[in-house]
Amino acid sequence: MDQNELKAQVGAEAVKYVKDGMIVGLGTGSTVRYMVDALGKRVQEEGLHIVGVTTSTRTTKQAESLGITIKDIDDVDHIDLCIDGADQVDDDFNGIKGGGGALLWEKIVNNASVKKIWIVDQSKLCHRIGAFGVPVEVIPFGAQHVFNRFVKKGYKPQWRMTDDNKKYRTDENNYIIDLKVGEIADPHALAEDLIHTVGVVEHGLFLNRVDMVIVGRDNGPEVLQAK
Ligand SMILES: O=C(CO)[C@H](O)[C@H](O)COP(=O)(O)O
C-alpha cells in the first residue's frame, strides 16, 4: 500500500470510535483529512449526530463542507474524543506534532479531550523522537531574539517558510521555528526549557497526551494502547 492508502485506512478505522452524540476534536493534516472525509460520510449516510471542534481553519472548512456541525472550543465544556495525526511517535507514545503548523490549537483541543487517538502511517513510528524537527510557535514580537537564543543552545533552529519565501503564519498569526535537534534523549527536559522561553507560545512536543495510536500497516490497521 502506498502512504496515502495507509492514511485513508487509519482515517476510516478511527471514525469507528465515534458514537452518536459525541463532541469530537478534529485534528489537522493529510491523514486527518481522510478521517474527516470518512466522518462526513457517516454524518451524511447514517445520520450520525456529532459536534466537531476543530484544530485549524483548514479542518473547519473541510468539516463544514461535509455537513459536520462545528462549535467553538469555548462553547463546549469538554470534548469526548479527539482524533489527530502526528509527525512522529516513539515507543513511550511521546509525539511530535505541528508539521502542519496547527500545534497550538491541537494542544488546546487535546487538553480539553477525554480520550485521544492519533492516526499515523507506519513510517511515523520511531524509538526516539527528534528526527522530525520540533515545531515551536513564537509570537512575532522579538521572534529573532528567540531564534538567536535557540542557536546559542544548539537547537539548530530554522524559520518555517511559505512556498513564496515568507515566514509562515499560524492561525494565530504567529511564526513557527523548527528545531532540528535530532534524536532527543530527554524530551521532557526540552519541553520544559521551550515552554519557559519568553516569546514561545507552545511547542510541538506532545508528551503523555495520547491513549491510543492507530497505525496504518500493509496488512491492516494496528491499534496500540498506551501503557
Ligand atoms: O500536527 C499536525 C499538524 O499540525 C499533523 O497532525 C501532523 O503534521 C501530521 O500530518 P500528516 O498527517 O499530514 O502527516
TrEMBL record:
EC numbers for this chain: 5.3.1.6
Transmembrane segments: none
Domain of life: Bacteria
Record-level GO BP terms: D-ribose metabolic process; pentose-phosphate shunt, non-oxidative branch
SUPFAM superfamilies: D-ribose-5-phosphate isomerase (RpiA), lid domain, NagB/RpiA/CoA transferase-like
Pathway(s): Carbohydrate degradation; pentose phosphate pathway; D-ribose 5-phosphate from D-ribulose 5-phosphate (non-oxidative stage): step 1/1
Gene3D superfamilies, sorted: 3.30.70.260, 3.40.50.1360
Catalytic activity: aldehydo-D-ribose 5-phosphate = D-ribulose 5-phosphate
UniProt-annotated binding residues for substrate: T28, G29, S30, T31, D84, G85, A86, D87, K97, G98, G99, G100, K124
Keyword Isomerase: yes
Active site: E106 (proton acceptor)
Alphabetized UniProt keyword annotations: Isomerase
EC class of the enzyme, as a word: isomerase
Entry-linked InterPro entries: NagB/RpiA_transferase-like, Ribose5P_isomerase_typA_subgr, Ribose5P_isomerase_type_A
This protein's record includes keyword Isomerase: yes
CC terms in the record's Gene Ontology section: cytosol
MF terms (GO), sorted A to Z: ribose-5-phosphate isomerase activity
Family the entry assigns: Belongs to the ribose 5-phosphate isomerase family.
Stated role: Catalyzes the reversible conversion of ribose-5-phosphate to ribulose 5-phosphate.
NCBIfam families with a match to the protein in the record: PRK00702.1 (NF001924), rpiA (TIGR00021)
Subunit structure: Homodimer.
PANTHER family: RIBOSE-5-PHOSPHATE ISOMERASE (PTHR11934)
UniProt-recorded name of the protein: Ribose-5-phosphate isomerase A
Species this protein is from: Limosilactobacillus secaliphilus
Biological classification of the source: Bacteria, Bacillati, Bacillota, Bacilli, Lactobacillales
Gene coding for it: rpiA
